Amino acid sequence: MESVSQYSQIIRRRKQFLFILAIVFVVIFIIDIMVGSSSLTMVETVKIIFEGPKENERYNAIIWGIRLPMALTCVCVGASLGLAGVQMQTILNNPLASPYTLGVSSAAGFGAAFSIVFGFPYLSPSWINIPVSAMIFSLLASAMIALASKRMENNDTKSMILFGVIMNFFFAALQTLMQYISNQSQTTEILHWLFGSLAKANWLGVLICSSVFLIIFLISLRYNWQLTALSVGEDRAKSLGIRTNKLRIIVFILSALLIAAAVSYVGSIGFIGLVAPHFARTYMGEDQRYLAPMSAFFGVILLLTASILSKIVIPGIIIPVGIITNLVGVGFLAYLMLRRKI
Fold this sequence. Notes:
This protein is mainly α. 77% of the residues lie in helices and 0% in strands. The protein has helices spanning 2-34, 42-51, 58-92, 104-118, 129-151, 157-181, 184-195, 203-220, 224-232, 234-239, 244-266, 272-284, 288-312, 321-338. It is a multi-pass membrane protein.
């Protein structure tokens, strides 16, 4: 009876924390829409959102045409990177695993740079080439890591991480090559994309990224108990009849699709997939039923917070959000190392 009571208390605390976090999310979401060169109060912002899009109204056009797509992009991308990060850390049993550290983001960056220089994959309209190319190369990098892992004895997770690091350096070198052979305007566009920016956020990107996230999230639900068992230990998972090698490949592919959809529209945004799972794990433990959605939730809050900071650090200038997330991520990594958490 005591253990049942303790479990009920844990569930109740988790629900209370989730409720508080939901309130924090709503407040930060509205603040992100509110903050900008055109000053708006929170009441005005909420009113315009509920009024819906209207023509020939300046503030309505600013919110519905620019700020709301940017904020919703933060939600979709943050959730995707947070979920992908916790899945990678679980299947690789390593707190440093993330889309950024495994080279998938670098591959997307090369894909974007390659498209900017050569126009690949030559689609019409031309603006769609960059996100499609970024998605193609991020999936290619993920496939290479997955295929390499199948050739490794017992799907050695350390070897997978090492191969991911190799991929990171490889595609980073190719990014540099694209910058070297590009002209001045192309170099500027490449750098702007690699910084990770929300400036080109649009409703189509929100639709695609949110659809991919919802589909992958629903598919991932069936693997939650297996991932929870795997987090306890490989032997324990195998004793429950879980095919751990197959599980790693499936979840890695799902994570790759999430990452590809997320970074293809906003560029390389680092450390969200690394930091969000650590925060979620602190409050939710290793139970994937709660850890996975909470990691996605923290990813959203972190990216929205970074978006707000990018607008207010230098008045009148919007700093690329990827710079903010990198600075925060580096500080968090240093903190973990000093506390000997990794």
